[in-house]
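Instructor's aside before we start: the two examples that follow are unrelated to each other. I chose them only because their records fit on one page, so don't look for a connection. First example below.
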Amino acid sequence: MSDQPQAPIPQAKNISVEDMNKADQGDASMEAYKAKLLGGAIGADGKAVAKYPNDKRKVIVEGVKIVFDDASAPQKELVLPLNQPDQIVIIKEGVTFTTYVTFYVQHDIALGLKVTNTTTKLGIALDTETAMLGSFAPKMEAYVVKAVTNEAPSGFLGRTTYSFKSVLSDDDLNVHNTFQCSITVKSDWK
């Protein structure tokens, strides 16, 4: 299985946030629509906002968080470091958990963001799923978006270590971030 996103979805010509803001000036209904669509995407200088103006990336991932749906969990939330592919997360078998991605969008609209998760066990791909996150306008505040909800395997054969790779990409096949970790499923949280 490939980690690369599938072929791009045909789209209309890409228009910058600045050009979109300049178009249809004087049309009150279009200006109201653009204000709702773009929100705070345009700064006082008429350009798209950027949390990190010297960073040319359109999408900057700040973090990945797992929220557990189990009252007995030692932590309700677990924030995962982005640059540690050898990290191991211990999860109790059968527990439901939700993954959230925190990111900034800057310079331009991010169209069709999606997360593709690949789960492997002993080097064999078990599952690949893609979750559409949506399109996002630039803004100074971070987006916190629910990516996927999963249930940990249970039973003797389910209690093992799984490798997890997540790729954040868009409809134009731009890969914005790749995240890896291992999940060990045990009969309890220890």
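Example two begins here.
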Amino acid sequence: MNYLYLGFAIITIVVLGVVWTYYNPKTIPSPWHDGDLVHISLGNSEFISRIAVSIYAKQKGLSGSQPLKENEGMLFVFSSAKRHVFWMKGMTFGLDFIWIRENRIVEITKDVLPPTETSIPRVIRPSMSADMVLEIPAGSADKFGIEEGMSISISERKE
């Protein structure tokens, strides 16, 4: 009977360790922290972007925030490249989604509008895997000539 309890305790500890590792933002290999500001260059365009690394920051995203200014964005950093899913819950302004893998744009989802009071928030999912996603104001990809295949560079923002 004691072995049963010991086995259960060991399994519980292992499961809790796995859950903690998955949800602890410090385990994601990233040089950034939630809320850090970075400078992103895409071709001839430049954006100042806030970073989202933790599960909580990624879930909240830009929901409930003020509309982005012309050269502002939010960069979501993931530990691995997947077809990450986004949605527009709580959004009051439109976005362009720039899907990035290994510092190269692999896909762009343009002009995603916020939901109306009576509609269900739209789910956005790329056709290709990405390890980062940059959200910028709707229409910015066309306005600044941002295209698939472009490389990006990210640097710390100098105050």
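The two ends are 63 Å apart (CA to CA).
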